[in-house]
Write a structure and sequence with these properties.
159 residues, 2 domains, mainly alpha, elongated, 4 helices
């Protein structure tokens, strides 16, 4: 009776070992099989076309870096102006509804900052524009290429 129980346990141990080995093999082989199917030529060409279409939809023409810098500057100036006007209006409405003198003074302060900002922008616009052209680097010359025969070398070089 003990031998039948031992045989049943050894058969169970064998099944457990085979399941563990099968799981290890599956863990080793399945990712490479899935990746090879994922990187099939049809999938890669579709993803390339999709990425190319996305890039084409983003910008049809290239933007000059100076133009991009100018657009960012104008957007920043617009945000500052909207913030100053918004703060002045909000504090003015709060001062009117609450009847608060300090809020009215704060609203006047925002009005003053807005006027000062407009004056600074006007001064920047009226000053003469100096465009700075970056220096172009000199091309590096590497000399000329020529074919060399054995007789072109001095005797000391052939030793």
């Amino acid at each position: 009776m003990a031998t039948a129980l031992e045989q049943e346990e050894s058969g169970l141990e064998l099944v457990v070992v085979l399941v563990v080995l099968g799981g290890l093999w599956a863990a080793l082989l399945l990712p490479s099989f899935i990746d090879s199917r994922h990187d099939a030529p049809l999938t890669s060409t579709r993803s390339f076309d999709r990425r190319l279409a996305k890039l084409a939809s983003l910008r049809s023409e290239s933007i000059d870096p100076l133009e991009l810098k100018r657009r960012r500057l104008l957007a920043r100036r617009r945000r500052v102006m909207v913030a100053l006007v918004g703060a002045a209006l909000v504090t003015l409405l709060a001062a009117i509804f609450s009847g608060s003198i300090p809020l009215l003074l704060l609203s006047l302060a925002f009005d003053g900052m807005f006027v000062a900002y407009l004056a600074a922008l006007n001064a920047v616009r009226d000053r003469p524009q100096t465009t700075r052209i970056p220096p172009t680097p000199e091309p590096v010359g590497y000399g000329e290429l020529r074919l060399v025969n054995d007789d072109d070398f001095p005797e000391a070089a052939n030793r």
